[in-house]
């Protein structure tokens, strides 16, 4: 019997992790790495998140540009985005090489790519604060899933992004991300950024599902870390529940 639910294919981040492991890249050994974790949701097994994975249709797609370390971090929230958005893609960034599949994706005529990045670091003529929801092309959000220092490096040293419009978000709320320390509370985590993008693109249901999924993930992750009992009777679980369907195991 497979551990992965029948209605869920591996998302792009999970496939990327598996690929890196097959290449001999070892996961980082951060605090708590010895605890047995669910292979599918990365949360400690006693607080597994798999039964709470939402299923939502979207017009938008997402493409995550990740660092070698980020793809292995249990606290990574790009994984949540790829769980929610059916058209998801993920690539490891390299300064010296670019994956041909990424270039093909950026040139695919069905997509209108938007590189999500703060507008104050970009020429004003490239910056937009809105998404074209009436065009013939579907929005594809390029998200730099890395630390802020790494993201700036990726932005500066990736010339294939130079032709893309920059989507600069204007968040009205501070970050709710509590899984890693940040010196700037206004810095949103990747999942929060993606939810704002989906909302701008008219994918309101997916934005709401991702917001709730992020809150549920954070609770499961932190409760497991602090050895607290799993509590599924929270407002976040109630908000997420309409987007969750029953999970049927796949029998090989």
From TrEMBL:
tRNA processing recorded as keyword: yes
GO biological process: tRNA processing
InterPro entries given in the database record: DTW, DTWD2/TAPT
EC number(s) stated in the UniProt entry for this protein: 2.5.1.25
UniProt entry tagged with the keyword Transport: no
Origin superkingdom: Bacteria
Domain DTW: 34-226
GO MF entry, a single one: tRNA-uridine aminocarboxypropyltransferase activity
Assigned keywords, A-Z: S-adenosyl-L-methionine, Transferase, tRNA processing
Pfam families for the chain: DTW
Name of the protein in its database record: tRNA-uridine aminocarboxypropyltransferase
Lineage: Bacteria, Pseudomonadati, Pseudomonadota, Gammaproteobacteria, Pseudomonadales
